[in-house]
Amino acid sequence: SRRVTGPGLLWEKPGAILDVFTSHFDKQLVVDTWKVEIQTVLDAIGWKDSKLKTRIFDTGVNLAISASIDLLYSAVFVIETSWHLTASKLLEQSADDFDGLIADLQKVISMEQNPPVLALQKTAMDKNIDVLWDDDYVSLGHGTGSQKWGINEIPNVDDVNWDELHNVPVAMITGTNGKSTCVRLSTAIGEAAGMMSGSTSTDFVKLGNDILDHGDYSGPGGARMLLRDKRLEMAFLEVARGGILRRGLPLRQATGAMVTNIAADHLGEYGINTVEHLADAKFAVARALSDDGVLVLNADDELVVQNGLSSPNTICWFSLNENNEHIITTRNSGGLCCWVQSGQINYFDGNGVALKVTVSDIPITMGGVALFNIQNAMGALCLAKAMGISNDAIIKGLTNFNSTPDDNPGRCNEFKIKGARVFVDFAHNPHSINAIADMLDNIPSNKKYLLIGQAGDRSDQDIIDLTNGALRFNPDVVATMDMVDYLRGREFGETAWIIKEQCLKHGIEEENIPHFSSPSEGARYIIDHLQEGDLVLLLALAERDKIFEMLKAAT
Q: How many CB atoms lie within 10 A of CB 428?
């Protein structure tokens, strides 16, 4: 069980959610029994406005209740109490004394309830001003238009200077791949527009040139940190699956949201067992858009299209193909869309082509061979238009952003060493590895080197699939590596052995599959053996900074 602060997998409401896994009981029976017990509890504590939501999946059920934002911890206790009663009934066991359970809940509720917070929230919502809250603070508005108070220092509604409060343009970016690149590229466009732009990502929270904190901030905590900084004028938030499922989204007045693509990754948690389930989770970003917000979607991705077609939001589609049916339909109906035609990205604003950018002028497209980065550029362009950024600033941002460790660390970063081309990428799932391997396979070369390793919490089949994707690069030498900090239950050398076995099956000679005890040792071996015309792909999932320093020193 856990508290949920905002829009998530099931709905847009704050409250509590319980994940139940079972192979012995009919899942509909579990849901039906719980609905009776939770209603009994809600009636007993007087929560007449609380709503219920359930979801049945292949291995269990999600059960959720809504609650006011001042009672989210209490909501967890409420749902756990209802589950105790439900499980006792299903197992035909005696439950604890009901009156005693209710008395305990009422004590918790009386300690947590905070009427001034609710009054502040209601007035802010009436004025379309976003409300962010956590254990310590409540804030209204975003960035330059924000103000925050301690959770126990909430002012009277009439004492708030509402004229100073407002939202700033905020975009949320999610998907399986491309999130970080789109966030960084979009932020560069915002900066090109002269805005104090900030971003959250799996690497850090950044505002202008200041890094507010390092770490994985692709969840609501990072978003609140950034949106409460009074210097902020425009924000781009990386939104990962884990944050959506654990806590939900922190805001409800976003200007734009984008879903880059949907592919299998991190399945098996929180009842998300299929890519279709994953798509449902990713599309939670649509629930956090303002009424006039724009949802930017990849028209080349089947699951994105399926979910987008049922969305009530204003949609801006983008596609690599000018003849994509959704692009054609949208243009004919006067909607928003973006496509590639004759080497140019075209943006259609509903009336006509309002912006054109030559693909080869965008450095991260590598002259147009990096198709995934053409898609990322289109997505960022569409978000920028939704944020009200000028064409000149969009073009400046797109054409000045490079695949370097400074602009886009770990995403197709290229180094020239001894006349060889060395690419570093942090790709870690089959979809992203396939894309980078296919792109590099088209580059002429003499000898090809691959550095690859995987975290131990991947299944054997996952490691095989990831290896097969990387081998689409057709390397002559594959340097396997272990990552001591990522063994995650496996023995040292175990994942490297699986990778080696797959390489042997692909016809690579054993003497061309050296093994190293760390990524940096593998990278050093490759650097030492490079000759002019060689091509290298380093899938550096650990020791990134050390490898970057090594490559910079070798150039």
A: 15
Compute the distance between CA of residue 534 and CA of residue 550 in angstroms, rounded to an integer: 18
Asked whether the beta carbons of 214 and 189 are under 8 A apart, the reply is no
In tens, the pLDDT along 215-238 reads 888 889 999 999 999 999 999 999
Q: 367: which 2 tokens?
A: 């002259």
Distance CA 526, CA 450 (A): 9
Amino acid at 209: N
* Full strand arrangement of the beta sheet holding 535-539: 413-417, 420-425, 535-539, 448-452, 477-481, 515-516
Which phi and psi (to 5°) does residue 314 adopt? -70, 125
Is residue 449 within a helix (H) or strand (E), and if so which, with residue range?
Answer: strand 448-452
Angle, nearest 10°, between helix axes 27-45 and 98-112?
70
Residue with tokens 């805001």: 251
Higher pLDDT, 342 or 456: 342
Least confident of 2-11, 183-192, 239-248: 239-248
Least confident window among 265-274, 377-386, 529-538, 543-552? 265-274
Query: Which tokens go with 363?
Result: 């450095």
| CB-based contacts of 217-225 (< 8 A; 24+ apart in sequence) | 218/179, 218/242, 218/243, 219/243, 219/246, 219/247, 220/5, 220/6, 220/247, 220/248, 220/249, 220/250, 221/134, 223/132, 223/249, 223/250, 223/251, 224/132, 224/134, 224/137, 224/139, 224/250, 225/200
Report the distance separating Cα 215 and Cα 482, nearest Å: 23
Residue 265 near residue 285 (C-beta atoms within 8 A): no
Of 211-215, 290-294, 385-389, 458-462, which range is least confident? 458-462
Q: Is the Cα dihedral 161, 164, 169, 174 positive or negative?
A: negative
pLDDT at 266: 62
Residues linked to residue 315 through DSSP beta bridges, in sequence order = 295
Higher pLDDT, 38 or 539: 38
The span from the CA of 103 to the CA of 98, in Å, is: 9
pLDDT recorded at residue 143: 97
Q: The whole model's pTM is what? A: 0.88
| 465-502 pLDDT tens trace | 889 999 999 999 999 998 888 788 888 889 999 999 99
CA distance 549 to 555: 10
Of the candidates 194, 181, 123, the one whose C-alpha atom is nearest the C-alpha of residue 155 is: 123
For residues 238-249, average pLDDT: 89
Q: Which helix (H) or strand (E) holds 20?
A: strand 15-21
H-only helix segments in 53-126: 72-90, 98-112, 115-126
Strand order in the sheet with 15-21: 2-4, 15-21, 60-66, 52-57
Q: Is the pLDDT of residue 151 over 90?
A: yes
- Exposure on the CB side of residue 328, measured as CA atoms within 13 A: 5
Quick one: which of 375, 335, 409, 383 has its CA closest to 172? 383
